[in-house]
Amino acid sequence: MVEVIREFVALNERYVTGALPSAALERWGDLVEMLDGEIARHDARRDGLDSRRLYTRAPLRLPVHFFSADAIGMGQTTDLSCAGCSVEARCPIPPGAEVQLSVRLPAGLGTLRPVGQVRWTAPAARRPGVWHAGVAFEPLARWEREALASCVLGAVAERYVARA
């Protein structure tokens, strides 16, 4: 698996800089699909968790703005995947609420503006006035899926290569 991750990292570096030839984009996409679920399941097994997760989560803290019918605010992501994110904010976002997010991705990958549904909300442990919320994204545009995959898998894959 390490060789596949190395290949992804090399192609992803070119994707991020805009230097990935269109002929290599299909291979990059194949690697994204192969690695996303595999890394998620590997991490879950390593941590002794249920390995049903389909998407890799990266512990990325990125600025986020959000608004719904019941809450408007800003905060930061605490983790990010191709299917959703965890948001840390100073106000609760009600479970079940539809929320519009704006997340600036690193490395010039653009600003992600997904619509999602809040699946859970909880006060932060030992941090009065801070709330966490889990948001599941609605289907994303192709460029958003690609940019998010580059960001998330790029952050996680480099860990694997460094350990090998």
List how many beta strands DSSP finds. 7
Mean pLDDT: 91
Fraction of residues in helix: 25-40%
Helix-and-strand structural type: alpha+beta
- CATH 4th-level superfamily of the largest domain: predicted glycosyltransferase like domains
First-to-last CA distance: 10 Å
- The secondary-structure element order is HHEEEEEEEH
What is the topology, as strand order, of the major beta sheet?
1-2-3-7-6-4
The shape is globular
**What's the level 1 CATH class of the largest domain?**
Mainly Beta
- What is the name of the CATH topology of the largest domain? Thrombin, subunit H
Q: What radius of gyration results from the CA coordinates?
A: 16 Å
Please identify, by name, the CATH architecture of the largest domain. Beta Barrel
Low-confidence stretches: none
Sheet having the most strands: 6 strands, antiparallel, barrel
Proportion of beta-strand residues? 25-35%
Number of domains: 2
**Separate helix tally:** 3
What is the fold's blueprint, element by element?
Layout: H1 2-16, H2 22-46, E1 63-67, E2 72-80, E3 84-89, E4 98-104, E5 111-112, E6 115-123, E7 131-137, H3 142-163
Antiparallel strand pairs: 1-2, 1-4, 2-3, 3-7, 4-5, 4-6, 6-7
List keywords for this structure.
164 residues, alpha+beta, Thrombin, subunit H, 2 domains, 6-stranded antiparallel barrel, 7 strands
